[in-house]
Description:
About 4% of the residues have low confidence. Strands 16, 17, 19, 23, 24, 26 and 29 form a 7-stranded antiparallel sheet that branches. Strands 18, 20, 21, 22, 25, 27 and 28 form a 7-stranded antiparallel sheet that branches. The protein folds into 5 domains: 136 residues, no CATH class; 53 residues, no CATH class; 114 residues; 179 residues, Jelly Rolls; 118 residues, Immunoglobulin-like (Sandwich), CATH 2.60.40. It is mostly beta strands. It has 4 helices and 48 strands.
Amino acid sequence: MADSTKLPSLAQLTYFTWSTPTASNPRLSAPIDADDTTISFTSAPLDENAAVITAPFLMGVKNSSSFVETIYCPNGADGASGLSATGCVRGIELAGLDYTVGEAANAASHDQDSPVFCNITAVVQALQVSAIRGDVASGGSGLIMGTDLAANTVTISRSTGAGTNLPWIRWNSGGSEVEFSDNGTDWTAINDVTASNLVDVSAADTTPGYLGAKINARGGLTDGIGSPAGNETVDIDIDLTANTGNITPGLLATSVSDVTATATEINDALDGISANVTDTNLNTLTAGAASDANALHTHSNVNILALTAGEAIDGSSTPQALCQAGENYKGEITVSMDGLNGAVGYQVAAMTQLAVGNVDATFRRSQSFTYTDGDATTITVGRAVIWMTIAGTPGDNFRVLIQGDSGGFPDKSTITNGTSNNVSSPAGGNRVPISVTWATPPTITSGTKYHMVFERTGAADAVNYYNINYELADNYGGQTSAVQVGTTTTWGSSNVNDILFHMELNLDYQNEVFLLDTDDMSKCNFIGFSEDNVAASASIYVSNPGNLQDGFTGLTQSVPYYGTATGGSINTSGTAGVSQTLVPVGKTRSDTTVYSQDALKRFKRSYTAGENTIAEISANATFFVPCGFRPNKLIFTYTKDDTGTGGYTVFKQYTATTTSAIISVNGLDGSQRITTGVSTVVNTDPGGISLAGLYENGFRINIAQAVNNEGFMNFTMYAEGY
């Protein structure tokens, strides 16, 4: 054991809140055994200035058995990233004055994703109580109290510089008396035989004396000593009837001339009745167990966050489930052969081609689009994918312009930064997916119609030109494609059949608060409930997960509840549909109360029979898939058909730390078990569909080249994360 002799400073043992709005659920990023001394976390411990904590601290880790182990991190967190700590002391005592030495019996193993936090243990409380009581020194650089300054004493000192202190009062246990000092060296006892019992009237008083002798009664006053030789008092008396000549007429009225309150107002004030606050009459409050004083009591709740509402929110009648959105969010528009948005299945053989730049009459093509998200502060176009087949060998480049709308056609005015980077002519192949980017992502306005204008950078050429592909089912309702004559720059021939494309948009919500909505893949980050009724841009108070939230009616008891597609509401089933995201918000404790929790979210997308084939793709294609959260685990399953005769099932699993599959098996039976006799490859990617990137509300997938009757069928994606 190594009991502390004084209360450690914040540089010796610091305290902080690990959870932050942008990293609300710190956890172990790797499992640890009971004797591991290097510990890694998912988010860095930060101080109030967002700097990594490098001072020693006590951390708590809660394992799957709900045991919280206290761990001493003498070196703080790693100064570079803050995502680990080394030299940690495991199993700190559960109580006492020692926080630096561990006990093996108090250490345990912890799984990856076990919660971590700055732990305020019983040891810290014992140190504080002992410092207040004087059992150990208070430490510090100003006022110092404790037993460590001199033998047989409890001393109060002040600092006179680094490493020095000047005691001025102490209890001397040897003499059983209190002593004082002016210089920290010479001590004088404070008792009934020393000058310390005498008083001065002022600093210039030359003759200290007893209190009774220093009081000079006059002006009708008399003084004397009460209880002589006992518990003495100084008694001062005045006889108003005999000394009226010594009271100046009007003196009392002059002293209270600023008081304008009436007698009734003064009586109300004494009763605790305020003219500005209702229900505060102290006379009407009941006492004891049935007291109604608690109804008048207000206090600050550390489990409530003050944030900014991004929309009107009314939780006054029923608490509303809320989310918070910030940067690095994405949206998408996908027009495929099978439908709008969320579909990554392209049956390429069914595509119809449109020539671009072969003759003047078809020099340019366009496709309108609208993206609506009134909650996003900014929306920019990040990238687009279109399907292209070339005729001959074009020697120029291809590009996409984003223009406004005029009567259903492009307005011929490219928006700021709306000209894409040039795309080189693809090397050949049938219906090649082309990725289009912009040097600076152009900003668009929510709910406003725009047009992508497709053009070549060179002149029309009837032999060497480009083809882009479109669908025949008008899947993108309210939008059209069009063609422009090059020499006249006149748009015409509007068509409801849309050009196939996938567009990825960048969204910024400035960390504002919105109603949780599982139908909006930017609104699935549950942060708690609110009972406020506020307008957009107003402050709103949100109770953190981990609290009991009451105010509901008709809940089913002791079951999990989830967010729904009706903003702010909760139910026992979550979201229904082909693309499903389950967002847990807590578990009921009664029919009116929910214990809120930020639990594991789950997403599943299974492509239906009409969109289950991705075939004859001439080059790799990358798509963004929104799921409502940043995954830390992804699983893809699909049938890979190399020959057009059935193929085999592929299983891939990913974590949030890499875009390489940690498990990749290309032979499974109907029950998703590894097939005996089929070549299996573990930790090696067999090609096909893979992870390409992770974002705050989704992920990118890459679909590999698949030609000559090859394809990927029966595709299912599963994601989970916080």
